[in-house]
Amino acid sequence: xxxxxxxxxxxxxxxxxxxxxxxxxxxxxxxxxxxxxxxxxxxxxxxxxxxxxxxxxxxxxxxxxxxxxxxxxxxxxxxxxxxxxxxxxxxxxxxxxxxxxxxxxxxxxxxxxxxxxxxxxxxxxxxxxxxxxxxxxxxxxxxxxxxxxxxxxxxxxxxxxxxxxxxxxxxxxxxxxxxxxxxxxxxxxxxxxxxxxxxxxxxxxxxxxxxxxxxxxxxxxxxxxxxxxxxxxxxxxxxxxxxxxxxxxxxxxxxx
Length: 256
Known about the structure:
Radius of gyration: 23 Å
Structural class: alpha/beta
Largest sheet: 6 strands, mixed
Number of domains: 2
Helix content: 40-55%
Low-confidence stretches: none
Number of helices: 14
Order of helices and strands: HHHHHHHHHEHEHEEHEHEH
Number of strands: 6
Shape: elongated
Strand order of the largest sheet: 1-2-3-4-5-6
Distance between the termini: 19 Å
Mean pLDDT: 87
Strand content: 5-15%
């Protein structure tokens, strides 16, 4: 078994794992995002008058649509589809009316989900490792250990342009130790199945690829290190790739 995988299993199954992890993935209580008073009054008027087209248009201005519906993304991108698809509009409208006005406003202004902030939480934690986090101009000529600052797309673009990595998606970290470069994904997988398994698949795809001169790592935390999770756990223990908890990143850098 890869030594980093072995250490990750030991850490995740020992007391204090979640307490230590909470220093990386901070779960803040997020504020609600209320509507402007005039917009809220317009929503109330459209709801009470059952003006469905106007109601949907108003609710599309919020970051979160009150009901989860696979058709909303298309309507956001093509607003005139509201006029062109009356049956779909009627169906979505009935779902909105079934909530009741109070619940509808509550759902439309609910706080941002914490799991959508995990990537930024990981980047905010990186400076605590004690290494420089530099912009591109400083990073390229830096000696010793340094992390590249920027968005996941900026890191991907640097890895593609300077390191020859053929990446199709953004990455969560890019750092160097002298002349050795490392790129990686960071994932906190909270529940088995679905999107979470997809997150593990994305990380696996990144580190299995061989293009470019950078080493590749996957910093994975969460339920996957539990022996009770037979599916992904069994895949990991047989792997010789550098998959490990973000809690071990400092140790990994020291022996790199």
